[in-house]
Amino acid sequence: MQTTTHEPDRFSMPASQLESLSKREPILWVNPNYAPLALVDVQSLEPAQALERFKRHAPVLRRVFAELEASAGQVSSALEPANALADVLAGAFGPCSRQASLLEPARGNWWIKRDDALPVAGSVKARGGFHEVLSVAEDLLASHGVQCELDSSEASRIFSQYTVAVGSTGNLGLSIGLIAARLGFRAVVHMSSDAKAWKKQRLRSHGIQVVEHEGDYAAAVAAGRAQSEGDPFSHFVDDEHSVALFLGYSAAADELAVQLDAHGVVVDEAHPLFVYIPCGVGGAPGGIAYGLKQRYGRAVHCFFAEPVASPCMLLQLASAPGQEVSVYDIGLDNRTEADGLAVPSASPLVAPLMREMLSGIFTVDDETLFLDTYLLHQSMGLLVEPSAAASFRGPLWLQGSEEGKFYQKQNGLERVMDQANHVLWSTGGSLVPESEHLKFQERGRALRAPHPQASKNGPR
Ligand SMILES: *Cc1c(COP(=O)(O)O)cnc(C)c1O
C-alpha cells in the first residue's frame, strides 16, 4: 500500500487536518458525508433481536453470575448527571487541552453513561460479548435438537465439547472468556503484546486459556481466527466482522432512552442529544450509534473519540468506500495507553454503516486521557480506565472549536445548544486493580499544572 504523502487526495479532509493527524495533534473531524436523514434501517440488523435475547436469558445470567443477582439478570449500567465534570473540564488547562478548552462555561446538560461499571466484565464489552456467546449457545442447543436452559447440566455437557475463542487487547477477552467459561465452554483468548498484565492474569485465574502474540490487536485477531478456522468445534468471536457483537451493543440505545425518559430529558430537534463514544475497531460505538439513530433519527448526533496514535475509523470514513486503510499508512504507530482503543484498522462491517450516520470523530492524546481520568475522580469520585476518558472532551470540541461551530451551523444547532444534552460514554474501569488506578491518578495529577492562560483569565 502506498503512503499518503504521495496521495493527498486519498482522504476527504483539509490538508491541514491530515497533517495534524499525522503529527498526532488532536483534531475534531466533521464527517462530510453525514446525512441527518440517512436511511438507517438495515435489514437483518435489528437491535430488538438482541434485546429479546438478553431478556430471554436474564434468569440464566442471574443464576450463573452472583453480580447479576441485584439486577435480576439484566446487564445494564446507570446514567448519571455529569455537570460537575463539565465545570472542571471547561476550566482545565492541561498541556494537551489547547484546542478544546474553553474560557466560558460548558453549555447544555452533561451525563455520563456508566458502562465502566457494567457487571461481571467491567466494560462496554459485556454488551456485545455476552450477546454473542448467548446466541452461539442457543444455536448449538438447537443444532443438537435439545431444548433446555443454557445453564442446565445437559447444555453444559454439550458446550464442554466446544471452544469459544477470541482475539482481544483485553476487555473483549474478559467479557467473552468469563461468560463462555461459566456456561461450560472451553475458552481461549488470543492477546496482543500491548494487553495489560493484570487482564491476562485475571483471565487465567478463571480457567481461561490465554495465548500471547507478538504484534498488535489485528495480529492477535488474525492468529485467533486462523487457529479456529476449520475446527467445527470452535467458534471464533470475530471483533472485526461480528454481527452478533454489533447487535449486542446496539441494545444499549433502548436502555439509554428509558433512562433519559426517567430523568425527564426530552430528545427532539429543539433538544438535541449528543453522544460521545470511545472507538477501537468500531463495534461497540458503532452498535450504540446505530441503535440511537434508529430511535432518535436527526435529533441525535453521534461522535466517536479515538487516540491520536490510532484514529482508524476516522481514516476509514475519510477515504473512499471499500479502501483498506490503516493508521500505519500515515506514519502513526498505534501505540497508546488506551489499550482498548489501540486498533490499526476499522471494522469492515461497521465502517460502511457509519459512513453517513456518524457526525464526526475527535482524537485524544494520552496525556489528556490521564488528566481527564484524574479530573473525573476529582469532580465525581469515579475511577475509570484511560480508554473510557477518551469521550470526555467531546462537548468542548463541539462548543469551542472552529470545526464544532461549523457543525452546529451546518445543522442549525446554534440556537438550541443551551437545551442540548451530552452523554459521555464511559466504557471501562471497574475491574481495574486498585494499584493500576493509583498509577493512572498519579499520572493525571502530575499533568494538572495550570495552562499559562489560566493565570490571566482564571479557571472557572
Ligand atoms: C473495546 C473498548 C472500546 C471500543 O470498542 P470497539 O468495539 O473496539 O470500538 C472502548 N472502550 C473500552 C474500555 C473498550 O474496552
UniProtKB/TrEMBL annotation:
InterPro entries assigned: D_Ser_am_lyase, Ser/Thr_Dehydratase, TrpB-like_PALP, TrpB-like_PALP_sf
Superkingdom field: Bacteria
Residues bearing the modification N6-(pyridoxal phosphate)lysine: K125
Gene3D superfamilies: 3.40.50.1100
Domain Tryptophan synthase beta chain-like PALP: 106-395
Keyword presence, Ribonucleoprotein: no
Keyword match Repressor: no
Cofactor(s) this protein cannot do without: pyridoxal 5'-phosphate
Keywords annotated in UniProt: Lyase, Pyridoxal phosphate
GO molecular function terms listed in the Swiss-Prot or TrEMBL record: D-serine ammonia-lyase activity
Catalytically driven reaction(s): D-serine = pyruvate + NH4(+)
Pfam family, one: PALP
HAMAP family: D_Ser_dehydrat (MF_01030)
Similarity comment text for this entry: Belongs to the serine/threonine dehydratase family. DsdA subfamily.
Protein name listed in UniProt: Probable D-serine dehydratase
Source species: Ottowia thiooxydans
Gene that this sequence comes from: dsdA
